[in-house]
Specification:
Helices cover 40% and strands 19% of the residues. It contains ten helices and ten strands. The strands form two sheets. Strands 1-4-5-6-7-8-9-10 form an eight-stranded parallel β-barrel, surrounded by eight helices. The chain has a two-stranded antiparallel ribbon with strand order 2-3. Helix 7 links the parallel strand 7 and strand 8.
């Protein structure tokens, strides 16, 4: 699919930002979750983005889904203008028009959830974003989803430990799936990551990035996690 002429290709490369050889932190601008409700975060998106960049984030994830996550499409542009990092649009994407709207608002990358989409849909949506120079984080929740991600040759694969039906976190899912992701892929661990200790465990499993949102509602946890992330990155340098 050819992008409209008004939408230039992304100049901030999400995948390259994560491929550091150490542990990259994707920090999330998130104000609510289906499991926890409103998180009580008072900072506006621009302030959060600047703080995440100062602490050493490699990229920013921005929720645009309004009903369950209190997100807004407009937050993408605000976040992108406030920092120099690539911005991931995180939503339940099922239509190319969502990707086009995300790019128009400043998204450099977008999320696809394999359990929500068939192979044909995944390929079409992935291609839509690629035409605009956007990277795609392909999220999986189990072996079936991972099979789909590999079938479309996803370059960035996120393993989410949260069950989509029960919303419960099974931390063992990160361990279970890590060894089934081939080399050459960027492995991203998602959900249930609340400490620097867990970052070290995930790095030992071969994950090169983590996506963290809810844990960053507490500033103390933010600083600890970023400190460990920077330490892991420097050890690989």
């Amino acid at each position: 699919m050819t992008p409209p002429p008004t939408l230039e290709p992304s100049r901030r490369h999400f995948g390259a930002a994560l491929d550091t050889g150490g542990m990259a932190v994707i920090a999330e601008v998130k104000y609510a979750t289906p499991a926890a409700g409103v998180l009580g975060i008072k900072e506006d998106p621009a302030t959060m983005a600047r703080e995440y960049e100062r602490l050493g984030a490699s990229a920013i994830s921005c929720l645009t889904e309004p009903e369950f996550f209190a997100g807004r499409m407009e937050h993408l542009g605000v976040v992108r203008s406030a920092c120099t990092l690539p911005v991931l649009m995180k939503d339940f994407i099922v239509d190319e028009r969502q990707i086009l709207a995300g790019r128009a608002h400043g998204a450099d990358a977008f999320l696809l959830i394999t359990e929500m989409l068939g192979l044909r849909e995944l390929k079409a949506l992935q291609a839509c974003g690629r035409d605009m120079g956007m990277d795609c984080l392909v999220e999986v929740h189990g072996y079936g989803g991972l099979d789909k991600a590999l079938a479309i040759d996803a370059k960035i694969i996120g393993v989410n430990s949260r069950d989509l039906r029960t919303l419960q976190v099974d931390a063992g899912r990160h361990e279970d799936l890590a060894g089934h992701i081939p080399g050459g892929k960027v492995r991203v661990a998602e959900s249930g990551i609340t400490s620097g200790t867990r970052l070290r465990e995930l790095a030992a499993l071969g994950y090169g990035a983590v996506l963290i949102g809810r844990a960053f509602a507490g500033k103390g946890q933010r600083e600890e996690i970023f400190h460990v992330g920077q330490d892991l990155r420097h050890r690989q340098a």
